[in-house]
Amino acid sequence: MSPNLIPVLTIDGPSGSGKGTIASRVADALGWHLLDSGALYRAVGFAAGMEGLDLSDADAVTRCAQTTRISFRDPKDGGETRVIINGLDATDDIRTETCGAAASAIAAIPSVRAALFDKQRSFRKAPGLVADGRDMGTVIFPDAGHKVFLTASAEERARRRYKQLKEKGLGVTLAALLREIQARDLRDAERPVAPLKPAADAVLIDSTGMPIDAVVAAVLVLVRPPRADR
Ligand code: DC
Q: What is the pLDDT of residues 136-156, one digit of tens each?
């Protein structure tokens, strides 16, 4: 099948909106592939940090984005998809707030985004793809048949993130997380290249106060509308 005929569902939105969980649950339900594009930016941020690069040095960080080997591996026993960076499992390392901030900084460099463009497009494989990120529906897969922009209030997103990080045993405060989320939102929304904004044809879902199952159902219904004869 020509890649352009393979169905794509894009799920964009700010950090902590639940995109990751929703995208993964929806991909499982549909039996489609999953692209966690944020993990690619986090991987480059992580690799740049390992190399001791100055994150504002666009040339150096772009070279890093071009040469870092990033792959995803499904664990045999279920559980979280492993993120392998230059041969090393960095799944937990890339989830820290420091790495999130590094990802957000390097994601504002146009040549870094260009370096990751083809890699992201290569995830479009039969029978379909669920792509999660900031610019999936606007830049990477503008021809996607289904687009969602998922959001939630900053306070709710901070609370969710707090719970996640606590469960992982990482020490953070709710107030600090809220500040970081607000700062990251602003940086992601105001950058000149691929800013965080809904595609004109995206369906907006505000998940504040909504249980995960309800959000999953609201997204699935867009891809598999209920048949009138059922
Ligand atoms: O979704 P996330 O929190 O893992 O993403 C980490 C950072 O990467 C986020 O602050 C912005 C950036 N990002 C991006 O610019 N474009 C994407 N498609 C995905 C993530």
A: 999 999 999 999 999 999 999
Determine if ligand 1 sits within 6 Å of the CB of residue 16: no
68 domain-assigned? yes
Answer yes or no: is 214 within a domain.
yes
49-58: long-range contacts at Cβ-Cβ below 8 A with a sequence spacing of 24 or more?
49/98, 49/99, 49/102, 55/102, 55/105, 55/106, 56/105, 58/109, 58/111, 58/112
Q: Which atom of ligand 1 is nearest to the CA of 94?
A: 4
Whole-number Å distance between alpha carbons of 180 and 53:
22
Task: Indicate whether 229 pLDDT > 60.
Answer: no
Q: Which domain holds residue 164?
A: 7-223
> Of 7-11, 65-69, 174-178, which gets the smallest average pLDDT?
174-178
pTM of the model: 0.91
| Contact criterion met (CB below 8 Å) for 76 and 23 | no
What's the number of domains the chain is made of? Answer: 1
Nearest residue (CA) to ligand 1, atom 15: 107
Q: What is the pLDDT of residue 135?
A: 94
Q: How many Å lie between the centroid of ligand 1 and the Cα of residue 133? A: 6
